[in-house]
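Q: Sequence in, structure out?
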Amino acid sequence: MGICMKTTVEIPDALLIEAKQLAASQHTTVRALIEQGLQRVLVERKGRAVHRLRQASFAGEGLQPDVREGAWERLRELAYEGRGG
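A: Exactly. Output:
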């Protein structure tokens, strides 16, 4: 991560208690929660939303043989087959 700087931050007791409970339930640390929250705020303030794609991979060997070398028209036909397209 690079060089870390130590600092002191004052937060309300109730917020710290809630953060500790959340950290414990998620097997992480309050420090990690603070870092994640601060990073999110910095990104939002810069006008860029945080977006992560879900893992959508699956085991397989790519396209089926009958469309592996096919044109987009063939793929479209298969996608809309039986749907009036």
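The mean pLDDT is 85.
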